[in-house]
Specification:
Number of helices: 5
Strand content: 15-25%
Radius of gyration: 16 Å
CATH class of the largest domain: Alpha Beta
Largest sheet: 5 strands, parallel
Distance between the termini: 40 Å
Number of domains: 2
Strand order of the largest sheet: 3-2-1-4-5
Length: about 150
C-alpha cells in the first residue's frame, strides 16, 4: 500500500471500531481525541472501553461484526483479530469509506501514524504499516529529544 501523509478532520464523523481489546481501546482514544463519534462493535470490551461507554463517550454494540453496523461509517477500524470480521469489513466496505486494518494492514486503505504534539506542531511517524513498534520507539526517542530542548 502506498500512502500519502495527510492530516484529516474527523470531528463529528462516525467511526466504527470492530473489536474490544487493547488495540481497539487505543484507536478509540485517538479517534475521540480528534473529535470523532465512535461506535465499538464487540461482544466484550476492555474496562477502559466500558468506562467510556458508561460515560456516554462511545456507543457499544455488544455483538460480532455485521455489515449493517458498517454501512454509514466514515471510517472503519478493524481491531478484533478475527479473520471473519476482516472478511466482512472487506466485503461490506462502501466506496469512499476509510478502512484501517489495525489487525491486518492488507485490508486497509489508511494507516494511523505515531504522533507527537509539541507546542504548535504535530509530528507524525510512519513505517507505512510495516512495523508499528519501530514507529513507537522513534516517537519515544523524539519525545525525549524535544523534552531535553525545553529544559
Amino acid at each position: 500500500m502506498r500512502l500519502l501523509p495527510l492530516s484529516l478532520d474527523i470531528s463529528q464523523k462516525t467511526v466504527v471500531v470492530v473489536g474490544g481489546g487493547p488495540i481497539a481501546a487505543r484507536k478509540t482514544e485517538k479517534v475521540l481525541s480528534a473529535g470523532g463519534i465512535v461506535t465499538v462493535v464487540a461482544p466484550q470490551i476492555t474496562e477502559k472501553l466500558e468506562h467510556l461507554s458508561n460515560e456516554g463517550k462511545i456507543k457499544w454494540v455488544k455483538d460480532v461484526c455485521r455489515p449493517a453496523y458498517l454501512v454509514h461509517a466514515f471510517m472503519i477500524i478493524s481491531a478484533s483479530g478475527s479473520k471473519e470480521a476482516q472478511s466482512i469489513i472487506q466485503r461490506s466496505a462502501q466506496p469512499g469509506q476509510l478502512i484501517n486494518g489495525a489487525d491486518n494492514p492488507a485490508i486497509g486503505n489508511v494507516a494511523f501514524t505515531a504522533t507527537i504534539e509539541h507546542e504548535d506542531c504535530m509530528i507524525s511517524i510512519s513505517t507505512l504499516g510495516k512495523d508499528p513498534s519501530l514507529a513507537k520507539r522513534m516517537k519515544h526517542k523524539l519525545q525525549k529529544m524535544l523534552n531535553k530542548e525545553e529544559k
